[in-house]
Amino acid sequence: MVAPMHTTTISLPAIAPARATAAERAGAAIVSAGCLSLLIIGASLHPEAQGHGTHTQLGLPACGWLLATGLPCPTCGMTTAFACVCNGEFARGLLTQPGGAMFAIGVSAAFWLFGHIALTGSRLTKPLGTLLQPRALWIIGAAWLVSWIYTLITWKSS
Question: Measured between alpha carbons, how far is 129 from 140 in angstroms, rounded to an integer?
């Protein structure tokens, strides 16, 4: 005779998705507010027609590298491109300095992402940790170098 098989049913408690801690949400709110302040400042600037020098509207001095060499520095045109994008002139921003334009788009995306995290407690930042990996940093550095080379090629002196 065969003994009957008994099956045991185990019920597991429902696992709620992990939420950001209060400290993480506060940090996300601070990052989002910082991004918003950069976007507001960028929108308040009037991009210079020659594609560089907009940073002087912030009270900063003229580019020392440019004054010493007559050539644009690795960040020349970035504030102008950032201001273009913040003022809705995406094509002009990309043509002025692609790195600055992409930075403005990244800051805008970060504003929304971190604002979402602060409001909802979402864990969307977990994948962002890959941006701090060496490979991603090399890619970002190479893109910045290409952006500077583009600026050197398309440079319009004042």
Answer: 14
What's the Cα-to-Cα distance from 15 to each of 11, 19, 20, 103, rounded to whole Å?
12, 12, 15, 38
pTM (2 d.p.): 0.81
Residue 156: the pLDDT is 72
What is the per-residue pLDDT across 35-82, written as a single tens digit (0 to 9) for each? 999 999 999 999 999 889 999 999 999 999 988 998 999 999 999 999
Identify the pLDDT of residue 15: 61
Q: Token pair 């790195």 is at which residue?
A: 99
- State the Cα–Cα distance between residues 137 and 106, nearest whole angstrom: 15
Ordered by start, the domain boundaries in the chain are: 22-58+67-123+130-154
With 0-12 / 13-18 / 19 or more C-beta atoms within 10 angstroms meaning exposed / middle / buried, residue 95 is: middle
Show contacts of 46-49: CB within 8 Å, 24+ apart.
46/83, 47/80, 47/81, 47/83, 47/84, 47/87, 47/89, 47/92, 47/96, 48/80
* Cα 76 off chain centre by: 18
